[in-house]
Structure formats: C-alpha cells, structure tokens
Amino acid sequence: MGILSDGEATAPPLLAPAEKPRFPSSLTMSMAEAAQLMSGRYCHIVGILGAPDAGKTASIASLFMLLARDKLSGFHFADSRTIRALNEISQGARRWNDGAPPEQMTSHTKLADDREAGFLHLRLRSKDGEAFDFLLPDLPGEWSDTLIDRNRTDRLNFLKAADAVWIMADGRQLASLESRLTTLRRLDLLLARAATFMNRPVPVFLVLSHRDSGEPNARDIEELKASAARKGIDLAVVSIASFRRRGGLTAAGFGIADLISETLGAPRQPPKLWPDIDQSLEARSILRYTSMRRAR
C-alpha cells in the first residue's frame, strides 16, 4: 500500500511557467527608473557627449573595472542597479587573443530604444564613508553628431537636470595634423549647442581620452577654453587613459579618479522648482529638488 490512497491525485510541486523567463530588453535604467531612484536619494546625473570613438563607453568601462579591483583612488564600489549592463560594456576589455589586447576595447553603443537615453548606475563610497550615486548615460556618438549637425535635442532633455557634463574628445585626433582643426571646430560647435540647449550654468569638463598616446597642443586647448568662456562655460580639462596601449607607460585608468573627484567637487546649481520642460520623467527637477533637500 502506498502513501497515497488509490485515486488520490498528486499536484505538481511547482507549476511550469507559461514561457521561459526573459531578461529585460535593455540592461540600463530607463528614464522612469532613474526618476524613481532619484526620488529617494540624491543622484549625480552626468551628461556624456562626444563623437563616435571619442572614448565615452571606454571611460565608463575603465571606471567600472577600477572599482571592481578596488583600484579607484579615494573611492570604493558600494552598489549598482545596472551591474549586468556595466559588465556587458566592459567585456571587450577582458578579451585577450594570445596575450594581445583586442583592437577595440569596448563595443559601439547601440540602444534598444533610440528615442531616450539609458542610464548606468554606480554608487561609490569615499574613504570617509560618504556615499555618492551616479547616473551615467551611455549614448551613441551619433547623438552628439546630430546635435552638432542638425541641433537635434529631443533625446537629450535629461541634460537639463545634469549636475555636470563631460565633453569627450579623442586626444589623438587633437594631436594629429590631419584631424586637429576639424576636431576642434566640432568640439566648439558641440559646446555651443550644449550651452544653448541647457540654458543654465553647468560644470563642463573637456575629457581628453588616450592620454597614453600623447597630449594635444596646449595652445589649442587654451583657445577652446577661451571660446567656451565666451559661451558662458567655465571649461575644465581632464586627461584620461581608459586602458594602456601596448608598450605604453601610462597606467590603465589614468585620470579617471581625478575626473570623478572633480565632478563631485563641482558646484551644483539649484534646479528650478517649476522648470519649463515636459513631465515625462526625463528631467524631473521637482524630484531632484526633493532629493537635494533630503541630502542636506
């Protein structure tokens, strides 16, 4: 005689799912998810602009890998709501072929929804124990190109709530005689477009990538800073090397910690209580206002 009597049916311990579980189509945070996070804590939104291959994604990957190895001077990793997205963009930097680094350290950014930005979240903790939340958009360089060429801004409304903006530039192109003038001209146009669109004082950093390959002409940078000042921008310059090239002497991650420290140290402008922008959660300044009060 068995444990169950004849005719007694046994229910399955677990019901089979109707379909296989699937991960979200995007591993980054949506505008709505970012706004929800901001409603509970202060988050530093950083706008990151720059041409394709300027080093935007590589800088984020380098930041994440420094944190993963506890090598970011002055800071430790505390948390991330987008850990899988950060891991995904840094995969290229961890692939090696016969001991040689890959030709391209990070993949070209492609968004699941090309109508709005996706955000990467990082929570850092300084050595004195203070926590800082960052929201970093990983945008295709083509968005900056269309901002320059056609003044397209509909996908960049989050910039109106940014605490700081990084304008990324490939230092090699600025040092090259063939590309120097074109790169400088487009950087100047990008600064002009961004200043007009944001229409408020925002700390802006010119982030020169590939420091390991040399430095641009100092006079060119000073002229670009002077032009930015005429547009109302106090342009700070930070040089970085996200990765070390073969035979290079500059350490991987050079300048990243300085960029984070200077971004945190930049003065913040209080947001408008009733901003003249839409309420689509792209730049919910009222939520940021609440978060700022909680952070005091």
Provide an overview of this structure:
It comes from Methylovirgula ligni. InterPro entries: DO-GTPase2 (IPR045528), P-loop_NTPase (IPR027417). This is Double-GTPase 2 domain-containing protein. There is one protein chain. The chain has 296 residues and is an alpha/beta fold. It has a single domain, classed as P-loop containing nucleotide triphosphate hydrolases (Rossmann fold), CATH 3.40.50.300. 32% of the residues lie in helices and 16% in strands. It contains 9 helices and 7 strands; from the N terminus they run αβαβαββαβααβαβαα. A 7-stranded mixed β-sheet has the order 2-3-4-1-5-6-7, sandwiched between helices. Strand 3 and strand 4 form a beta hairpin. Helix 4 crosses helix 6 and helix 6 runs parallel beside helix 7. The longest helix has 19 residues. It is globular, with a radius of gyration of 22 Å. The relative contact order is 0.17.
